[in-house]
Specification:
Length: 115
């Protein structure tokens, strides 16, 4: 009887210490991923409001991007993008913009990011 009680206590102690270490690891990860940066992407080739919505929507779908709002529409449109650099890079965001298909021809990739 005493051996089984000792075994149960050892198991509970091991489980409690494992749970604590997992919780500490999770808290550390949250602190690292809370950092966000903001960039302004200048994009050429935008011809209509549908283009603006499509580009913004595609960028917001990317993991690590929190917001993508249209700043200025015109010959060179701007997009204000907030993102987490631990999850995505500027180059990946720019690539997503440039890989967005045009509204007139889905096979066309008319958007170019000015750097």
């Amino acid at each position: 009887m005493k051996f089984s009680n000792l075994l149960v206590l050892a198991f509970i102690f091991m489980l409690a210490s494992t749970t604590t270490s997992i919780a500490q690891t999770t808290n550390e990860e949250v602190q690292v991923t809370e950092t966000t940066l903001k960039i302004t992407a200048k994009v050429k080739g935008v011809t209509c409001s549908t283009d603006l919505k499509t580009i913004s929507g595609n960028v917001e779908k990317l993991e690590g991007v929190s917001t993508c709002t249209v700043g200025k529409a015109g010959a060179t449109s701007t997009f204000e993008i907030e993102y987490n650099p631990a999850l995505i890079t500027e180059e990946e965001i720019y690539a997503a913009i440039q890989n967005t298909s045009g509204c007139k021809n889905p096979d066309d990739r008319p958007y170019k990011v000015k750097q």
